[in-house]
Write a structure and sequence with these properties.
By secondary structure, the protein is mainly alpha-helical. It contains 16 helices and no strands.
């Protein structure tokens, strides 16, 4: 008698999609959609755009699971993922990712517009292949360059509503691009031994923790300046400014705290603050957009 392995559960497939990451991607994409129009966007276009971008991000996440399956098995933070645990086969993952990707592109091409579909495809391809296969293991600046792929969602959302790339959408891109390194480097400091074990050259592995802490501070200062641009260019008003300044000072505070305390607990606190920070920045943009006032 031979034992049969249990059938893959929907929870395993859901985990492949990295729902928390996709939720942040969709949130910033929706922010781009809402900021692109003076009132509320057309409901059908809004739904199809959100779903198409979400499915593309989930497809890229599943491919990331497949490519990183061997490294994940050696890392405490990732060893419980479906592939290392044997909950899904590699074929399951590839087919699932392909189905999501095809549905995503079909939705965006047919129901949204070709430019959004193209940019979404390039973004997903950049994260799933260029970053995961090459950049991640090639350079300690991996997360800096990868920020270009992760920063596209609000630009995609804007493009979905208007069919064009507006300069203001590029400001949204720039905010996430500058946010990505000081967001991820605190986590890479706390998990540096795991990254070193699987040969991933994250900055604290190749250049040391002190060097990385300094760069987190420098990037948090750069991010503070960049987040002022929506106000300085007239994209946003006082509501945004009054929210983004204390949020940015909070990020700088945590970066300085990391340089003083030098422990992994503070690094993780900075990582979690960075998530709250980005959410706060985009909420401030939206509140200001709909309740804008100036002096």
């Amino acid at each position: 008698m031979t034992s049969q392995s249990p059938r893959p559960s929907w929870k395993s497939y859901l985990e492949l999609c990295k729902p928390k990451v996709v939720a942040l991607i969709v949130f910033t994409a929706i922010a781009g959609m809402l900021l692109a129009v003076p009132g509320m966007p057309p409901i059908g276009l809004f739904i199809y755009s959100s779903l198409g971008i979400a499915l593309a991000a989930a497809s890229a996440a599943a491919i990331n699971h497949y490519i990183d399956r061997e490294a994940d098995a050696l890392m405490d933070r990732n060893k419980h993922r479906p592939l290392p645990q044997g909950d899904l086969s590699s074929a399951n993952v590839i087919v699932f990712a392909a189905i999501l990707g095809v549905i995503s592109m079909a939705l965006l091409i047919v129901m949204v517009n070709a430019l959004t579909a193209l940019l979404t495809f390039l973004s997903a391809l950049g994260y799933a292949i260029i970053y995961t296969v090459y950049l991640k293991r090639m350079t300690p600046q991996n997360i800096v360059i990868a920020g270009a792929f992760g920063a596209t969602p609000p630009m995609l959302g804007w493009c979905a509503m208007t069919g064009e790339l507006h300069p203001y959408s590029l400001l949204l891109f720039l905010i996430i691009f500058a946010w990505t390194p000081p967001h991820f480097w605190p986590l890479s400091i706390a998990k540096r031994k795991e990254f070193a074990k699987v040969g991933i050259p994250m900055l604290p592995v190749t250049h040391g923790v002190e060097y990385t802490r300094l760069h987190i501070l420098l990037y948090s200062l750069l991010l503070f300046i960049i987040t002022l641009l929506p106000y300085l260019t007239g994209m946003s008003g006082l509501i945004y400014l009054l929210a983004v300044v204390p949020l940015g000072l909070g990020f700088i505070y945590f970066a300085i705290l990391m340089m003083r305390r030098k422990d992994d607990k503070t690094a993780m606190r900075t990582f979690f603050y960075s998530l709250m920070y980005l959410t706060g920045v985009f909420i401030a943009l939206l509140v200001d957009h709909y309740f804008k006032f100036t002096l």
